[in-house]
Design brief:
Radius of gyration: 16 Å
Protein name: DUF985 domain-containing protein
Order of helices and strands: HEEEEEEEEEEEEEHH
Pfam families: Cupin_5
Structural class: mainly beta
Shape: globular
Strand content: 35-45%
CATH class: Mainly Beta
Number of strands: 13
Number of domains: 1
CATH architecture: Sandwich
Organism: Meiothermus hypogaeus
Distance between the termini: 31 Å
Strand order of the largest sheet: 1-2-5-12-7-10
């Protein structure tokens, strides 16, 4: 199996602000205008977007939240865990990977407004996934967690927040 560097080079991936590497692979040619979008959006958005996203140990995708649901698709590599904190403070996780016998799935959905992060399940591994959103992604809808502020809001998850923020 090819390693992380092969996929970064082959797919033309670039560093992502939350950690890992990415490249947008699709942006819908049509957009939804502001009057037809929920109030949480500041302007028009494409109908849908898609990216490749790669994590390589020991990196992680730092806690952040989005204004749209995001569907994660597992492609290749080792399993990873998506850590989700609901707006009410409930912690849950999704396990993406190639082995359903280990509770892993090929797809998982992160609901809009949830804080979430991703980490690899084993050292010295990587995972290549894809992410799709509708309405499509815009950096105006991306909020990177502030460690102390989020830990004060959800003190019961302080250890996880410290581990998955920068």
């Amino acid at each position: 199996m090819n390693g992380a560097k092969f996929w970064v080079d082959h797919l033309g991936l670039e560093p992502h602000p939350e950690g890992g590497f990415y490249r947008q692979t699709y942006i819908a040619g049509e957009s939804i205008a502001k009057p037809h979008l929920p109030h949480r959006y500041t302007g028009q958005r494409p109908f849908s977007t898609a990216i490749y996203f790669l994590l390589e140990y020991p990196d992680f995708s730092a806690l952040h939240r989005l204004k749209s649901d995001e569907v994660w698709h597992f492609y290749i590599g080792s399993s990873l865990t998506l850590w989700l904190i609901s707006p009410e403070g409930e912690l849950s996780s999704l396990h993406l990977g190639p082995d359903p016998g280990q509770g892993q799935s090929f797809q998982g959905v992160v609901p809009a407004g949830y804080w979430f992060a991703a980490s690899l399940d084993a050292p010295e591994t990587f995972a290549l996934v894809g992410c799709t959103m509708a309405p499509g992604f815009d950096f105006a809808d991306f909020e990177l967690a502030q460690r102390e502020q989020l830990a004060q809001q959800f003190p019961q998850h302080r250890n996880l927040i410290q581990r998955l923020t920068r």
